[in-house]
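Chains adopt folds. We examine one example:
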Amino acid sequence: MDSKEIYPLYNDQPVIIEVQDNHTKIVVSDGFHFTKPIELNYTQPSFYYFKVVSPVNDLQLLGGAFIMIFFYLLGFITGLLLIKLVSFIPIFLLLAIYYFNRKSFIQLKQDSLSVTRSSQHG
C-alpha cells in the first residue's frame, strides 16, 4: 500500500481492505476531522472489524431538532420569550459536545463481535 488509498464508507455497508504489510496504519476522516493513526499488527492472516462512531449520533440530532422545533413553536404560539430561548438549548448542547470532543469527534472502535466473527473465519 502506498499510504494514499482512500476507501469510501457508506452507512451499514462493510468495506474490505486487504493489506500486505504486517504493520499497517489506518486513519478515518470525514474531510474535516481525522482519527489518530491506528496501527494493525499481525503475523498471520487476520480479520479486523471496526465501526466508525461519533459522540453525536443520528438519533440525538433528530431528538435535538424535534425539541428545538417544539419549544420554538410553543414559544411562538404563547409569545413567551423564555420558551423560545429554551428551544436553543439543544444547539448549545450539541456544540458543547462537539467542541469538547473535537480531537476525537470521529472514533474508530473495534466491533464487539470481532472475536466471534474472527473465530468463524479462522
